[in-house]
Amino acid sequence: MPDPDMSGDDRLNLLDDLIKRARAAGADDADAVFVEGISLSLACRLGKTEHLERSEGSDLGLRVFKGKRQAIVSSSDVSVGALDALVERAVAMARTVPEDPFCGIADADQIMTSTQIDLDTVEPGEPTAEVLKERSLEAEDAARAVAGITNSEGAQASWSKSSVALMASNGFAGVRAGTRSGFSVSVLAGEGTEMERDYEYASAIFSSDLPSPAELGLQAGERTIARLNPRKIESAQVPVLFDPRVSGSILGHLSGAINGSSIARGVSFLKDRMGELVFPADVTVIDDPLRKRGLRSKAFDGEGLPTRERKIIETGVLTSWTMDLRSARQLGLESTASASRGTSSPPGPGQTNFYMAAGDLSPEELMADIDEGLYVSEMIGHGVNYVTGDYSRGATGFWIRNGQIAFPVSEITIAGNLNDMFANLSAANDLEFRHGTDAPTLRIEGMTVAGK
Fold first, then answer.
1. Which residue of 120, 162, 172, 290 is most buried, as measured by CB atoms within 10 A?
2. With the C-alpha atoms ordered 259, 263, 266, 270, is the resulting torsion angle positive or negative?
3. What is residue 253's predicted lDDT score, i.e. its pLDDT?
4. pLDDT tens, residue by residue, 24-56
5. Domain that holds residue 72
6. Between the CA of residue 411 and those of 55, 147, 188, 395, what are the distances in Å?
7. Domain C-terminal end among 220, 244, 261
8. Are residues 148 and 270 in the same domain?
9. Does residue 240 sit in the same domain as residue 364?
10. Distances in whole angstroms, Cα of residue 281 to Cα of each of 142, 269, 278, 354, 423
11. pLDDT averaged over the chain?
């Protein structure tokens, strides 16, 4: 259980003791991470509270090295006896596992020497259950007040706080923490087999950065009404627009394709595209771990390296893989300080605040010259082949006719190849930082839309 009175220094002292025990037991090097979390959530439906939960937890992970062998163990028990057993088990495992020529902690000259960077990731205080109840009820009431809404799947408000302490035998020591507040609501319209549902949600480090629950509820209600009486469409090859609620998924596929581990294994369709024009020249994609109040902001990565903003796509050109130390060593490159980790597995490459910069045109202008096309508001399934770039996913949304939203559509599949999709992409000017991976409204030319 987390100790509310345990300071950052207390956590680091615990890890320092653990690493010293590991070295004394025969480990050549070691690092350790201590993760704590507190969460509070409340759900209501039809004006009544259905669920209230508060949870606390902590976990400790130890990674030890014997030559080019590594082992990782974890425990939620930090008693002296448990720590001794943890160290003994880890060192014994490290003596028997196969060698990994690319494993190892950072060199001393690679680590961050000062972690005193304020990214404003912690909102003071903890909301009461009554505050969460007010937020969820207000959101649901606003959604249900929209004419035509017939039922509710409920609303939920939540808050959480987490902290991570990391230490390694190379001299690195750091602690970071973050809070997150959010709420969501889902409602239904229509009756029987003609019923439709939709939702809206928001999440932020500070509750003051959230939209009002009433505003969010209104959006959920209006989205749901707009989906009533969907039509089937004929298969066609048309421009497709992706709503900001789903456009981040396109960036997610880019993230998977430039992951250093995938590149090192040769299983990415972008593995030979470094330095090439992958997107149109007006497209920029950025990973910014140092953004104030960013949902994934952090001054140091999971291996103690100082993070920095990176332009992964600059004027359309792919400029960087996303690498931790291991994948960088495999590729003969330097880590991009992109390691993320838990307590029971080794570090791996990952993005932080990952986004596509806004374009110049509004979504309406981006749509204006489309005679026939599709506006996607929700995605279904995960049909992406990262080796070939082939893309096929279920979707729902709206048909575009003569530059305007014409009617809702359902039971459709959109398909293409990510190489072609990236090369034929345009970004609108409506970027908002809401999800951690964010993009504005996107238009992609010439996608195959399969309907009836």
1. 172
2. positive
3. 97
4. 999 999 999 999 999 999 999 999 999 999 999
5. 8-220
6. 39, 25, 18, 7
7. 220
8. no
9. yes
10. 43, 20, 9, 19, 9
11. 95
